[in-house]
Amino acid sequence: MSKPRRYRVQQRELARRQQQAAAATGGHAPPPQNAVTFRGQVRHYTGPLPPPEILREYDAILPGAADRILKNFETESDHRRALEKDESEAGQGFMAKQLGLLSRGQVFGLVVVIAGFATAAYGFHVGAQIGGALIGTVDIVALVALFITGKRGKQPPALPPGQAPPNSEGR
Question: Which domain holds residue 132?
Answer without folding.
Answer: 47-150
